[in-house]
Amino acid sequence: MQASTLVLNGKTNWYKRGRLHHPQFHIIMSNILYYFNRKKRNELYLKSTNPIQLNPIGFVESPYDEKFSVPRQPNLVAEGKGILRLIPPYNTPMQSEAWRNLVIFG
């Protein structure tokens, strides 16, 4: 029986009886389908009737300007206190739903 070959990315994949015998067949096919479906997904996203809008509920005031300057053990540094300032109408905890899902790690 004669087998035909297909070259993808410099690697030879063998076809026998019309089927691809390659250990990464499913990965190759999913990548191909992902590429061709990307245009369809982008069109559906642009036609979305419910776009996501993010509005800030507050701001954090911290003595640290960069992410990597924050100490790993914050309890050992007394001058490293931060403040969470909520903007109206989220600054009244009794009337706001923002407090329901707000988690503060300290």
Automatic annotation (TrEMBL):
GO terms for biological process: methylation. One of its GO terms (molecular function) is methyltransferase activity. Transmembrane segments: none annotated. InterPro entries: TrmO-like_N, YaeB-like_sf. Residues 54-106 form the TsaA-like domain. Coiled coil: none annotated. The keyword tRNA-binding does not apply. This is Putative methyltransferase, YaeB/AF_0241 family. PROSITE patterns: TSAA_2. Keywords: Methyltransferase, Transferase.
